[in-house]
Amino acid sequence: MHVVVETSFEYNDEIHSVGESEGGTPRGVFENVADAKESMKTLTVEFLRNWKDLCGFGYGMDEIYSRRPKFIVFSGVGGSTAEQDEEFMSKDPYEVDQLIDTPNRSQEDLEELASCLEFTPYFITEVPLG
Fold this sequence. Notes:
Blueprint: E1 2-6, E2 9-11, E3 16-18, E4 25-30, H1 33-50, H2 61-64, H3 81-90, H4 93-100, H5 107-116, E5 122-126
Antiparallel strand pairs: 1-4, 1-5, 2-3
Helix pairs in contact: 1-5
């Protein structure tokens, strides 16, 4: 079985980090990994829709994002993907939160954003039966 688990974050007066005292809260059990991944994606998008300050999940951009969301494009910066990515990762996380504006993003944008996170609000644990 595949269990979708909500990450237990602890706030240390600076950032939210993964809690060490517990593994997380189960949110669903699935027979196959594809269904678990789809559930995890849906839950992550809902998390993003309701959480506007992603800057609180790391001290720097590389702790929050693995890459630039495709919907973020900077004018005045070279048009190459590498230049756009470099500009994104050099930004202040608070500034990026305002650029992204998660509560007002489309479903498609939030799905893209979910795939760009370095941290994970949900994860899948495989549990053997028997």
